[in-house]
Q: What sequence folds into this?
């Protein structure tokens, strides 16, 4: 096994025993990037000099017997909408093509404190808007399992980098499935934490009431390690919470675990092979002593419509700051007046998908339509939240597919926005409810990975990890 193929746990063990150095590990990762990324195209930018400098510093601390954590000296890739001081942060958009982050996001500060080695920024759908990473303003990332297929989105670059062993782990962001769906398509593990469990400070806002940063890793144990490092209350994010104070009774036993299977998620439209693999994974847990029952999430059928009203509304507000004056690309020199600066800069700076969502959101929030659309969607959101609250009185975790199908081919859905949006049918309700969910591999269809989604109650990450570890260890 080459060093770049190691998990976090394996790398940490090797580093602690001084069987390898952080510099060696980081160099091997960059060798793999140079070899593989010409085809996969997971990265928008790299910081080889900075990464090797950080790795050398960690090796020196280790040589002096400094006490270091489990992430010290281990390479990580960062989605390009999370700010890393001194590195470009474009959100895969022309409007921010040359923007350099002036400060670190809170999650980056925490990783740096833990000794992580940041190797570069990964490709994504522009401003995290998409399910295939085809919407990047620069190029499309490819699925390492089949270069003719998409890696998922919007964190497609991060998931592909982990799957291709171009990094040991990565960070992504999830607004409606953008960590879980690419994790499923690329055969890796991805967590969308409870809303507020991880600080959003330094994450470029898409839809502020839905966005969450989370880890993408090779194993469930690695995912838990990264989550433990980045979660927690942050004074710079008023929506963040102290998970350690909120969580109660974290002792886990698979015996008599109550698993809910929502009948609405195993209905028409789900690929029969995906359906079979997900049910087989659930059966394994049942054989270990878990109890499985069918449950109802009756308002889930409205989740996609609800999401595509609330999310664009927040997008239209959050992206208003990119006006050709304060940030990034500007047509100031070409325009005759201020309005022309705004119109020209935004028209040529944003791609088709951000423009589509800005227009949808602006329309939804406009006079005469606010009550009919946005207000009604918020009421439906409350009903979806109540669905999950009721369900978690009956069961401990909920299990569903992540996506109706395995990874689809390039161009298959890009010209039909509605068809593309349906890729998120099993994931958006999780963000609307603010509950945590993890995607983990449960098999393959024609060589393509399929993900199982494990959903927990708010602050239920320990329960999710316990369940996922039990399945991983018995697969």
A:
């Amino acid at each position: 096994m080459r060093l770049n193929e190691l998990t976090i746990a394996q790398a940490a063990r090797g580093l602690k025993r001084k069987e390898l150095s952080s510099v060696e590990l980081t160099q091997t990762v960059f060798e793999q990037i140079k070899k593989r990324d010409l085809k996969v195209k997971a990265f928008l930018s790299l910081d080889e000099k900075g990464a090797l400098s950080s790795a050398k510093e960690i090796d020196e601390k280790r040589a002096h017997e400094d006490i270091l954590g489990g992430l010290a000296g281990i390479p990580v890739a960062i989605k390009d909408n999370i700010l890393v001081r001194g590195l470009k942060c474009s959100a895969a958009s022309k409007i921010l093509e040359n923007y350099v982050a002036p400060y670190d996001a809170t999650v980056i500060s925490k990783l740096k404190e833990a000794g992580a080695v940041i190797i570069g920024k990964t490709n994504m759908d522009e401003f995290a808007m998409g399910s295939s990473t085809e919407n990047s303003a620069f190029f499309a990332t490819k699925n390492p399992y089949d270069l003719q297929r998409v890696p998922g989105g919007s964190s497609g670059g991060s998931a592909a980098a982990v799957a291709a062993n171009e990094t040991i782990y990565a960070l992504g962001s999830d607004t409606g499935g953008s960590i879980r769906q690419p994790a499923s398509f690329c055969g890796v593990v991805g967590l969308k934490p409870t809303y507020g469990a991880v600080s959003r400070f330094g994450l470029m806002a898409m839809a502020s009431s839905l966005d969450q940063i989370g880890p993408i890793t090779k194993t469930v144990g690695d995912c838990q390690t990264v989550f433990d490092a980045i979660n927690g209350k942050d004074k710079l994010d008023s929506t963040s919470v102290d998970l350690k104070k909120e969580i109660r009774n974290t002792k886990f036993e698979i015996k008599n675990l109550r698993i809910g299977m929502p009948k609405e998620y195993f209905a028409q439209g789900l690929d029969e092979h995906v359906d079979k693999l997900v049910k087989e994974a659930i059966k394994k847990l049942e054989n270990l002593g878990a109890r499985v029952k069918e449950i109802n999430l009756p308002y889930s059928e409205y989740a996609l419509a609800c999401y595509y009203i609330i999310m664009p509304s927040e997008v239209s507000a959050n992206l208003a700051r990119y006006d050709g004056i304060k940030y990034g690309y500007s047509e100031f020199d070409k325009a005759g007046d201020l309005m022309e600066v705004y119109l020209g800069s935004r028209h040529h700076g944003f791609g088709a998908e951000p423009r589509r969502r800005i227009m949808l959101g602006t329309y939804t929030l406009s006079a005469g339509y606010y009550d009919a659309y946005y207000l009604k969607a918020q009421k439906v959101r409350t009903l979806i939240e109540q669905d999950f609250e009721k369900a978690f009185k009956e069961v401990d975790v909920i299990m569903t597919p992540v996506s109706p199908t395995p990874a689809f081919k390039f161009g298959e859905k890009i010209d039909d926005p509605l068809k593309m949006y349906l890729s998120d049918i099993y994931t958006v309700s999780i963000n609307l409810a603010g509950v945590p969910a993890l995607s983990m591999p449960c098999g393959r269809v024609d060589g393509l990975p399929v993900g199982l989604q494990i959903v927990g109650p708010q602050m239920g990450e320990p329960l999710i990890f316990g369940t996922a570890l039990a399945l991983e260890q018995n697969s």
